[in-house]
Write a structure and sequence with these properties.
alpha/beta, elongated
Length: 86
Amino acid sequence: MRCVDFRVNMSQDDNEPHRFTIEEEQARQYRRFNVRGTQLTVRLLPPPEGEDPNPMPHFLDSVTELFQHALRDLDDSDMVGITISN
């Protein structure tokens, strides 16, 4: 079993701008679940210039991308946790 823990942009297409950057990645033991995993600290990026001035669509797109990144290449027994702090 593998565990990935995100502490808050990665796009499916490398030609598109990323919506978050990975600030830190570290291996970690999660005793509560008896697994070793990877903890990533990411930073959401601001919207590019010229994008809609309403920040909510950009935030929702960024979080959607974060979830897509977290859920790729998982096995049925894998666990993912995401914590967002400001």
